[in-house]
Amino acid sequence: MVRVGVHVSIAVSIDKAVDRAIEKGCDTFQIFSSNPRGWKVRELKEIEIEQFVTKVRQSGIFPPVDHMPYLPNLATPTDEVYKKSVAALIVELRRCASLQIPYLVTHLGSHKGYGKAAGFLRMVDAINMAFRAVDNKVMLLLENTAGTKNSMGGTFEDIQHIRGNIEHKERIGICFDTCHAFVAGYDLRTEESLNATMQHFDDVIGLEHLKLIHLNDAKADLNSRLDRHEHIGLGYIGEEGFRVILKDERIKKLPMILETPVDNRRDDVENIQKVRELAL
Asked: Which pTM was predicted?
């Protein structure tokens, strides 16, 4: 049995996200705890925090996952954006604790042409600063990227370099995005290639640090460096590829979040059903 869910909206009140997750038949779910496209963060009311925590507990859906908004860039060379990004990370770590959300996913940002070395320093300092400011049990999950130009974290070695320089490594986990990995050059479509990829992950980072899967098909081919998500089975990874992925013991035991499109071909519920069908 796989634990699969989708990203749900927090519109009206954050606890409504749990209702939406239940409605879609989720076993786990992901949210943005605030507006993902703005810097301004609305304070959560005590009542909605209580209702969120109660609804999650009563639903049996676990884990709820929070995702960092789009604007923060922890690797940016621009001081103003950097300060705002670190502040945003601190806010989200605190919000997760009050909502009893165990995982906060972050993208690793872009060095904007200043080079990986500069980006690494910024990222590591940002996370260390945030962890010093907020001491709680929330685990920050570093998400692998698609290897696009100037982006950080397109290889397992990059992710381990960041993780290895964090003061509180026990507070860091990994979110593995199948679309990002595939377009960054990690083949997942056959038992042999998936095994090689997972073995490489284990050798470089350690599978014990893998906590969450972002399960997405890819609109672009292997090593294309194009970050475009597709419905499960309808992209370049394909149904056979997902059958292999969903039967892998190292992956199937982990919570899986779909970030697939919603269009006239398929919606969230149908993508969840497709995952369950391919996992049988």
From this structure: 0.97
